[in-house]
Design brief:
Length: about 270
Amino acid sequence: MYQDNFNKGELVCIVINQEHRIKYSQIDIQTAHDYLQQLNIFDNLSGEFPIQYASGSYWVSIDRFHVATQPYFIITLTSKYYKCNNCSKALIDIATGLYNRNYWEQLNTENCYQSEDQRLFLIFIDIDNLKKMNDNYGHLVGDQAIKIVGEAIKKSIDKEDLGIRYGGDEFIILILNKEKEVAGKTIEKIRKEIKSETLKKGVTVDISAGVAYGGYSRSLEEMLEAADKELYKEKGTKEIGKTKKGMALKGLKKLKNMCYNIFKTIFRREPL
């Protein structure tokens, strides 16, 4: 069955809409359609997702996502001879259960989020000082921080929104067809969830976030770049705040020492 179209172990991605029309394929459209029919994919587009099964010489993984409330299906195929017992792992981040960088790349390549009549927000989140956390307390604590943030994202977004672990300490959220204030409210929800969980576990985890608005004239990569700039503005503000706080503490300490010395001079003895 068309085994010469891609190499053993190579993942092939196909995206179809609700009407079973191919919107994106890494192989030519006719061959992709043949795969969809021969591997019984059209018969497996209902139920709980993701769906994985074996058919002939192939592993099949099907997942669903929404664009402007319309369902799309992303299908990945790979040869059974490849060492892959659960091909959904190619799109799911094991540590958090969110989608991973591979999934982001597929969305970005497909450009299916570029729609003239759709409101789209991209939130870019970064865990503050994760490297320092790893260095001071070990990677197990750092891994715990990543899981806490991933879980907070899952609890804070709606089912039609997408949560993606972009890599390392960075996360992406795509929010569809919502008012502008929803992005800010979502970030606040995430922060509250993180605070609640860190209080239970006795750790400190903070995040910085940036938001970008998109539509048909702006690609996902352009939105990510814009959100990244906003994120680092917030980080810069935090650093300024820390510096001012440090200077204020030093000023208070200096004032305290001055008062102590004046007290000694007046009474010529140590205070009780």
